[in-house]
Amino acid sequence: MARVKRGTMTHKRHKKVLEKAKGYWGGKRSLFKTAHEQMLKSGNYAYRDRRNRKREFRRLWITRISAACRAEGMQYCRFVQGLTRLGIELDRKVLAEMAVSDPQSFTQLVAKAASALDNAGDAVSAA
To answer: What is the phi-psi region of residue 111: left when phi exceeds 0, alpha when psi lies from -120 to 50, beta otherwise?
Structure first.
């Protein structure tokens, strides 16, 4: 059986790793061992942060909606409660975009939510 020399495949594998490591700082971009370690670490960060990004955006949307609600004199939780009672199913992304880009319609939504809460309060006190 013929002898197999593995230099070609090793070179190809190293080249692939160093290609992915372009842009890293220092030896992490040019030394195979450190580049490979950093590439694995970067992959873990990317995997983790794809999930964290969703959390961060949700927090941002809630903050924007809350600020817009408080400008109208209503708490965020009361606003969401009013929308739920009305059966309005807009997600936080849409509400946040509306609060930033279309304040008039957001103000109308806040007024509707407030009236829904007032009507519910009247129904509870009447019972």
So the answer is: alpha
